[in-house]
Amino acid sequence: MSDFIWVLLVILSLCVAAYQRLPLMNAIIVAGGILLVGTIFGSLGLLSWLVFIVVMAPFAVPSIRIPYLTKPMLAFYRKVMPEMSTTEQEAIDAGTVWWDGEIFSGRPDWQKLHAIPMGRLTPEEQAFLDGPVDKVCSMIDEWQVNHKDADLPSEVWAYLKEHKFFAMIIKKEYGGLEFSAFAQSRVIQKLAGTSAVLSSTVGVPNSLGPGELLQHYGTEAQKNHYLPRLASGDEIPCFALTSPEAGSDAGAIPDQGIVCKGEWEGEEVLGMRLTFDKRYITLAPVATVIGLAFKLYDPDGLLGSKKELGITCALIPHDTKGLDVGRRHFPLNTPFQNGPVRGNDIFVPLDYIIGGADMAGKGWRMLMECLSVGRCITLPSTSAGGAKSCAMSTGAYARIRRQFKLPIGHMEGVEEMLARIGGNAYMMDAVTRFSTVGVDLGEKPSVISAICKYHLTERSRVTVNDAMDVHGGKGIMLGPNNYLGRGYQGMPISITVEGANILTRNMMIFGQGAMRCHPFVLDEIKAAALSDEQEAIKAFDKAVFGHIGFALANAYRSIWFTLTGGYFHQSPFKDSTARYYQLLQGYSANLALLTDLSMGILGGTLKRRERLSARLGDLLSYIYLASATLKRFDEEGRQHEDLPLLHWAMQDLIYNLETALMDFLDNFPVKWLGLVLKLKLIPFGHRVSKPSDATEHAIARLLQQPGTARTRLGQGQYLTREPGSLPGELEQTLEDVLAAEPVFDNICRALGEKRSFTQLDQLAEEALAKDLISEAEAELLKRTEKGRAKIIAVDDFAPEELVAAIR
Ligand SMILES: Cc1cc2nc3c(=O)[nH]c(=O)nc-3n(C[C@H](O)[C@H](O)[C@H](O)COP(=O)(O)OP(=O)(O)OC[C@H]3O[C@@H](n4cnc5c(N)ncnc54)[C@H](O)[C@@H]3O)c2cc1C
Predict the structure, then answer these.
(1) Which residue ranges does UniProt annotate as crossing the membrane (predicted)?
(2) How far apart are CA 495 and CA 488, in angstroms?
(3) Residue 522 burial (CB < 10 Å; 0-12/13-18/19+)?
(4) Of all protein residues, whose CA lies closest to atom 31 belonging to ligand 1?
(5) How confident is the model over 132-171, as pLDDT tens digits?
(6) 633 in Cβ contact with 113 (< 8 Å)
(7) Of 202, 277, 280, which is best to mutate to test ligand 1, by the most ligand atoms within 8 angstroms of its C-beta?
(8) How far is the CA of 422 from the centre of ligand 1 (A)?
């Protein structure tokens, strides 16, 4: 072999070593070995060895590497990287890394994904879902709640308390239900499909709030006092963080507490004077205990030398003197309890601080930790539950409602909407299952919870819009017969709360993901911040060279992906899902590569380039959502009938991912590099097409026809056939229509004329008189007509009924 071939082999061995992520020394040994063979059997000589040593020595020999590479790199790093604020640092420290870390690795391990256990309900949790949850759903009259009372009826409040709906997160030792996150998610899903007021009322105390904070950080006395009372519903909690001047920028709250001495129950005690103005606080008007976040100051040094202690959380009983609470906001006609809380110079003892005086100033960290769990559960589950209910109701309605002598669901334009509703519902349920299992495994997945919150609420918005379009005027006319309009009206609420969506997509997902999930970035930041210079150099050396190897590996993996289309990537299955695993593997390498390049080129300014950050976050998010979807398909036994739903979700996610990737590269600040990267990473544009018309047709049909795939899609929703249950009536009428159609066709054939599928009761009489059908068939036609007329009916009112209906 010629020298050129031997040199090529050496370079190739280094590429393969990098691709396989071999440690640096192992890679050098392999390359050196090939060089040796080339020297013995070929004609490689001294020059080759000299070049090899000059290139490799700085990496392999610490005494060369550290002074000449590591130290200047550390100095440069410190110059370009902005310091992290305490709130940013605490937000990043609060979470843990789970499947998001695998995605950032550039090489997700699919065996690991499928080895994660699936979510299961205990018999007790299942009984709760089948019993009290069904019961409370049956007690809700949405029109009464939303339009007339602007509140849940008192018997529903009492039932929720009695059955401990507010205590799903509270441990059994305090009298709570201590349900898994997975079970909580199933409860919220079912409630959300029935009533947004109900699901928010139950969701909030089980999410971020006094219960969660007390269990993690409360003193024994606080836990023993409050937790049993919260579990029994004797206390209703709320949590007040947001103020008029600090919404998204919650760390900037102007609300304050001043440590001082004061009189409390006849004695002089150490306490705080609190002044605050909070708004938008869910459950505040009915809360008996208010979790309050404020900044604590100790100007007289009563607690120590620190004057500004920072954000602190305390529990304030609602009857505390001077507390102004009880007024209500009116959130988009979805009248769950929500309102302002204000206080001016209220004195309370220090032991009102959650966790006592020791926890003064640690409130932000507490909130971030709890939020990283809560955001995985309540809003994503509300969104998934809403989407599943939309899929069931819209599928049934589209089959029942006819225009142009056809069910509207058989029209291609409507099929597009139905497919999007079905595909999204399938994916969203997959994501809530997977993510809540992560929480149950002990994770505090802050990045994943941001992904879930943003993407599921956005998909929910798309779904409810589609459902409204398919329902036409039926969705628009509010009244007791409308099961959609209120969900549509209230949709922006979930977009806004717990971190508004624009902020979540543009700042949080990638911003925190890159710091938290990247295998080396956080180590570099920590190393650079060390005060001991020797320690800093040692730690930085380890992190930065690990990082360089990681970046090289992802560059090789990305190029390999482009050259081969990913067809050589391993997939755990050999069926029609294999391609998705291969593509996701490649895009994970692209994400890791682009993360490093962007951070390397833009440094600290990447944080301000929100739109670039958002698109990298999209890559991360779509791989996460796709992983969860593939996992669901496998957990449910790889059901053939579910394939259209799976294919729709995967193709939609990967298509969107590719769009985000191309948009990112088109807008990369270094134009020529963006172009080069586009040619290298995605030279021919989309690798995956949008879901085809045939796939969408299959989903549309699946939604309109009872069957196992449809049942799985709506699994866990409140669809009982009890009289008065609108979802139940839809299901029953769907079945009746499908059963009545062949009878109707037979009659038309016998009469020799094509009638319209209306006035079936009259047709039944006529056919019975002519002996064309049996009594049972006539009964079916009459029942179908009754159900059909009820389903397409909308409400009307005397004018005065609509005037100021909410007292
Ligand atoms: C119905 C409801 C219930 C709520 N319940 C509670 C509760 O129980 N307790 C509580 O403490 N709070 C609660 N909130 C408050 C909620 O968390 C805030 O509304 C939310 O944080 C957004 O703040 P804001 O409405 O002031 O919007 P702003 O902060 O004014 O934001 C307006 C827009 O700007 C965007 N934006 C802001 N900063 C950035 C950025 N850096 N990059 C990109 N976009 C950005 C936001 O995404 C948003 O779209 C509730 C709110 C509502 C509406």
Answers:
(1) 28-61
(2) 12
(3) middle
(4) 248
(5) 999 999 999 999 999 999 999 999 999 999 999 999 999 9
(6) no
(7) 280
(8) 30
pLDDT at 806: 52
Rounded CA separation 589/249 (Å):
33
SS3 182: helix
Phi and psi based region of residue 288 (left: phi greater than 0; alpha: psi -120 to 50; beta: remaining): alpha
493 C-alpha vs ligand 1 centroid, how far in Å?
10
500 touches ligand 1 (CB under 6 Å): yes
**What single letter denotes the amino acid at residue 626?**
A
Chain CA centroid to CA 76, Å: 37
Element (H, E) at 460: helix 446-471
- One-letter amino acid for residue 499 of the chain: G
- Give me the pLDDT at residue 332, please: 94
**How far is 116 from 290, CA to CA, in rounded Å?**
38
Does any ligand 1 atom lie closer than 6 A to the CB of residue 87? Answer: no
Q: Please name the residue whose Cα sits nearest to atom 45 of ligand 1.
A: 503
Q: What is the DSSP string of 152-165?
A: --HHHHHHHHHTTG
Measured between alpha carbons, how far is 460 from 492 in angstroms, rounded to an integer? Answer: 10
- Structure token pair of residue 378: 């309540």
Spans of the chain, pLDDT less than 50: none
240 Cβ closer than 6 Å to some ligand 1 atom: yes
* 497 Cα to the center of ligand 1, angstroms: 6
Tally of CB atoms within 10 A around 702? 22
Cα–Cα distance, 567 to 581 (Å, whole number): 10
Q: If you take atom 25 of ligand 1, which residue's CA is the nearest one?
A: 247
Q: Is the pTM of this model over 0.85?
A: yes
Instruction: Report the separation in Å between the CA atom of 247 and the middle of ligand 1, taken as the mean of its atom positions.
Output: 5
* Residue 709 Cβ contacting ligand 1 at under 6 Å: no
Predicted local distance difference test score (pLDDT) of residue 50 = 86
Indicate the SS3 state at residue 548: helix
Query: Atom of ligand 1 at shortest distance to CA of 336?
Result: 1
Q: Which residues contact 548 (CB under 8 A, 6 or more apart)?
A: none
Q: Would you give the DSSP letter of residue 68?
A: I
Residue 548 near ligand 1, beta carbon < 6 Å? no
Q: Is 495 touching ligand 1 by the criterion CB < 6 Å? A: no
DSSP state, 237?
E
- Measured CA to CA in angstroms, residue 692 lies from 258, 517, 652 at distances of 63, 35, 10
Residues 6+ apart with CB under 8 A from 628: 427, 430, 431, 433, 434, 435
Query: Which pLDDT belongs to residue 437?
Result: 98
Residues 6 or more apart whose Cβ sits within 8 Å of residue 655: 686, 688, 689, 690
> What residue owns the CA closest to ligand 1's atom 16?
497
**Residue 695: partners with Cβ closer than 8 Å, 6 or more residues away:** 419, 644, 647, 648, 651
* Index of the ligand 1 atom closest to the CA of residue 249: 29
- Ligand 1 atom, smallest distance to 240 CA: 11
Cα separation, 491 vs 383, whole angstroms: 9
> What is the full DSSP assignment across 640-709?
GGGHHHHHHHHHHHHHHHHHHHHHHHHT-SSHHHHHHHHHHH-TTS-SSPPPPHHHHHHHHHHHTS-SHH
Q: Is the CB of 732 under 6 A from ligand 1?
A: no
722 is catalytic: no
**Rounded to an integer, what distance in angstroms lies between the CA atom of residue 539 and that of residue 738?**
69
Pocket probe for ligand 1: among 213, 289, 496, 507, the residue whose CB has the most ligand atoms within 8 Å is: 496
pLDDT digits (tens, 9 = 90+) for 754-765: 999 999 999 999
Q: How many CB atoms lie within 10 A of CB 235?
A: 23
CA–CA separation, 286 vs 326, rounded Å?
A: 7
Catalytic-role residue among 498, 658, 777, 785 = 498
The reported pLDDT for the residue numbered 21 is: 77
DSSP for residue 770: T
